Amino acid sequence: MVWVNQNTGVYHLPGDRWYGRTKHGAYACERQAEAEGDHRSGIRVSRQHAPRSTRRSSAHSPHTVDAQGQDARPESSVENPF
């Protein structure tokens, strides 16, 4: 078991200073952490990681930004006189 910092995508092994101590973390199997794109502490990677909460989100909003903007428009055809 490793401790994964969900904000950074870095995992810590037992005995590591930050094992079980970061604010936003969870225990996971090392293989699972690697499969989800996390990397071991002390190893630098060249790519940027998105915060884990956005990477693992499986629920997508059915509305796009454009659709939300259209929903916010008034349905009245009366123009503003000001």
Please explain how this structure is put together.
This protein has helices spanning 30-35, 52-55, 65-72; strands spanning 2-5, 10-12, 25-28, 39-40. With 82 residues, the protein is of the alpha+beta class. A hairpin with a 4-residue loop joins strand 1 (2-5) and strand 2. The protein is elongated. It starts with a strand and ends in a 10-residue tail after the last helix. Residues 56-71 have low confidence and may be disordered.
Quickly describe the structure.
The protein has 82 residues and is α+β, with helices and mostly antiparallel strands.
Any chance you could write out the topology, listing elements then pairs?
Blueprint: E1 2-5, E2 10-12, E3 25-28, H1 30-35, E4 39-40, H2 52-55, H3 65-72
Parallel strand pairs: 2-4
Antiparallel strand pairs: 1-2, 1-3
- Name the average pLDDT: 75
- The SSE string, one letter per element, is EEEHEHH
Instruction: Tell me the strand percentage band.
Output: 15-25%
Given the structure, what is the number of helices?
3
Question: In order across it, which strands form the biggest sheet?
Answer: 3-1-2-4
Q: What is the number of E strands?
A: 4
Poorly predicted regions:
56-71
Classification by helices and strands: alpha+beta
- Alpha carbon gyration radius: 21 Å
End-to-end Cα distance, whole Å, is 64 Å
Oligomer: single chain
- Please bin the fraction of helical residues: 10-25%
Shape: elongated
Let me know the largest β-sheet: 4 strands, mixed
